[in-house]
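Allow me, if you will, to draw on your knowledge of protein folds for a short while. I have a record of one protein: its chain in single-letter code and its fold written as discrete structure tokens. Could you please explain, in whatever detail you think fit, how the structure tokens follow from the sequence? The record follows directly beneath this note:
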Amino acid sequence: MVTGRTDIRIRVLLPLLLICVGSVVSTAVADQLNDDAPTTDPYTNISYIRLLSQQGAILPMQQLMAKAMPTIKGTIIETGLELENGRLVYEIEYLNAQGKVREAYFQASDGRPVIIDHHKAAR
């Protein structure tokens, strides 16, 4: 038997529950759509990066990591391909032994270490 008090709770709480569930679902769908959205930066487009690698313009990530690992002293956090000062470079962000985030750059074509002065570029 449903009492008047229970009936009021159901009429009030059920719509609130449906609103919450709908909000979570719509946020998840929006996130998925954003992940699949095309990008205007070609250096974050996996198809473009694969093409550059197949053409020999850049090293595949596995080869780069084999060359870079002796100079990286820490835990890798993130890697990426960037255009810096007119040249393609791989950026490797890592956490060093002191817990500081550091960045190392390597020429994308041959894996040579590159020094990039971001302070100079900011002027």
Observations:
- The helical segments are 4-36, 46-54, 61-68, 118-122.
- Confidence is low (pLDDT under 50) at residues 14-18, 20-38, 119-123.
- The longest strand covers residues 75-84.
- The chain has four helices and four strands.
